[in-house]
Amino acid sequence: MKIRMPLEEAERIALKYAEMLAPKCERIEIAGSIRRRKPMVGDIEIVAKPLMSTDLFGFSTGHQDLTLPLPTSKNGQRYKQYLLPEGVMLDLFIVLPPAQWGVIFAIRTGGAEFSRKLVTAKRYGGYLPSAYVVRDGAVHRVDTGEMILTPEEIDFFNLCELDWIKPEERN
Questions:
Q1: What sections of the protein cross the membrane (predicted)?
Q2: How far apart, in whole angstroms, are the C-alpha atoms of residue 146 and residue 135?
């Protein structure tokens, strides 16, 4: 059974794990229901963009491994899930190319219906202009496959022709 906890407790736990991962990250943020300021939280979602690793000569060896010293129930390159000792699930979403921060952070902030609309074409009742598709965490033109840069949420909102919507107002 999924536990629910008060926002303040979930936020304290989320900050603890975000701080553990931060030294390996270019950027890390808490998303999901904590970011939306829901009074009760069922899980913790963190979005992280890892730093590049380099060798002794300064050459890139890939991205830092974002792993917590805990067992995982899902342990992919872009998504890891942990049952924390505090009894709550942590979903870690890792932004790796071609994924764009703006797309992933907006989708993982939610809520579920809002996220679904962000990746659904307008002709099907969503927000995404029909000339685009979200694939691999990035926006691409349907006709050419060209990736559209969305380094921030506001860039994704602008592409969708949406005014800024505060996280706590997203359903």
A1: none
A2: 11
What domain range includes position 150? 101-169
Q: Is the pTM of this model over 0.85?
A: yes
Instruction: Specify whether the CB–CB gap between 101 and 151 falls below 8 A.
Output: yes
Model confidence pLDDT, tens digit, residues 118-168: 999 999 999 999 999 999 999 999 999 999 999 999 999 999 999 999 999
* One-letter amino acid for residue 9 of the chain: E
C-alpha–C-alpha distance, residues 35 and 32, integer Å: 6
DSSP states along 124-171: GTSSB-TTEEEETTEEEETTT-PEEP--SHHHHHHHTT-----GGG--
157: Cβ contacts below 8 Å, ≥ 6 apart: 106, 163, 164, 165
